[in-house]
Amino acid sequence: MPERLSILIAEDSAADRMLLSTIVSRQGHRVLTASNGLEALALFEQERPHLVLMDALMPVMDGFEAARRIKQSAGEALVPIIFLTSLSEGEALVRCLEAGGDDFLAKPYNRIILDAKIKAMDRLRRLQETVLQQRDLIAKHNEHLLNEQRVAKAVFDKVAHTGCLEAPNIRYLQSPYAVFNGDLLLAAYKPSGGMHVLLGDFTGHGLPAAIGAMPLAEVFYGMTAKGYGLTDILRELNAKLKHILPRGVFCCAALLNISFQRQEVEVWNGGLPDGYLLRQDGSRTALISRHLPLGVLEPALFNDACEVYPLALGDRVFLLSDGVLEACNAQQELFGEARLLRVLDASAGSLQLFDEIQQALHDFSGQPQDDVSLVEVCLVEERQLNRPPLAFADTGQSHLLDWSASFEFRGETLRYFNPLPFLMQLLLEVQGLRPQGGALYTVLAELYSNALEHGVLGLDSALKQNAEGFAEYYRQRSERLQQLCEGHVRFHLQLLPEGAGGRLLITVEDSGKGFDAQSLIQREMRLDRLSGRGLALIRQLSERCSAAADGQGIRVEFSWSPDA
Amino acid sequence: MSDIHLDSAVLAALQDVMEDEYPVLLDTFVLDSEERLLVLRKAEQGADAQGLRLAAHSFKGSCSNMGALMLAGLCRQLEEAGRREQLELAPDLLEQIEREFAIVRILLKSERQRYRR
What is the pTM of this model? Predict the structure, then answer.
């Protein structure tokens, strides 16, 4: 259906003007008439017609000049100008085109040709209009998208960078927009000391790849802060991602649990390239992916089995995203693992490992790589890290001061449940204990792992003397835990007001064969059930540490005064 | 025979387009043409070749629209003379144009009366 157009006719001959305006209005259009170029320009600016029929030769201002000015005034919009002319010289026709004319109509006028030309010009005009609309729409969408990414990045930076990536023992390399490549790097101090590190790589790109990073970071930071162990966090991460992500979207990830105090690293790798444990002496252990990525398996089928490796001071754990191995050169070859290993060999012990890897990638592919994520965590003395105090969202109950409670966790529970976050949450309701929260976590964690591993599971920490024994220890731990159906660990908690402050007494007992805690404590730091290092730590962090009255456990005390 | 002066097929088409406005168009053409003749005459007297060329060009266009074929042809010659600055041809051509226009005017008047009937 042809639209009713408004058409400006500029023609100085009265008879021609009359004839043309009659023809055009009979064709259903609205007609504006001008008898010279200046009038035409004024009418154009006032009425903004869709199309102009312009005589070339007119008094006052000719059609060429009027056409130029009308085109200028129309800006980006296409206002077709059809020159009305009996000009026959090529030169004059060229002048019409140069002035911005789109077509010609020769005199004498032919109605059918005029109608066809108006329609053709209208199609062009609409096409241009559509192009402009689409362009503006695309620009708007693009602006919208960029804005969304800015907002998403700002939100994500808040969620993800509350962690401890800036700790002095961590080095990392990541593009600032890595999250939109699906790459994700998180690190957090555990309340009991040590840290958790996660390197993740979501399938896909852009916002869909970034969206899963939010819950992942929330769970990782939230559960780490509450004192959950790596396996609990892994299960929760997998379940959450499985639940929220569409099929085909998942997260390749490696998680580390570094214990500075025990000098161990616990590793879980699901789908990331091999990470490496780089020892001071130049030797290297691959941290191989033994699992499917997070978000693939149903919770019941998920395997949270971690590997544990002993670390020495200065040993480094190195993780990388597949952007490194999949960097491509002009021949479509991949960088690959062999080339990476050569870089690792050449740089054994070097602190410039990242620079060397980047240089190798650049040499290989001929261009800088922007989807590469690298992280390296070094084992240091814990006191070298400036751990911030534990953060609390509420103010705590100052009157929760006079109570006691006992808990017994038995076989089935011990297999799957880590009671520490649960106990800590209860204890940290007491405002006076909060300043010592970190110490309390550490001591409870030591006491619990001692009770579980040596008491209930009967493991011998003497095994951990060398690397083979170390692996054997953790193999036995996992095997015995799987088969565990009897046994228990008990916590007795007692809170007493003391002056304006208070005192906490914790007794931990287990169902193990028992040991002479008193003589152990007196002998100071001798290796037996409680490793020397663990005991030293407990003694250092708690106010008092002794064998329980009946010899069946260990009792520790914490106290505080209001001005402390 | 009179088609050389005024093409009846063109007039029929104009009548078809203009409907009731047809006589007004004829009147307008006559009035407009008289003005153009004055302009042409003035340019010729002023020996203004460019003015002669432009005025002849415009008049040519109007004439062709009205089916005044011979008049349009004379205008084209005058336009050409103006373009070539052959002013010596102008007086004769202008006289021919005036004579031809007198014929066309009479024919248009009768056409107008024919239409009224």
Answer: 0.64
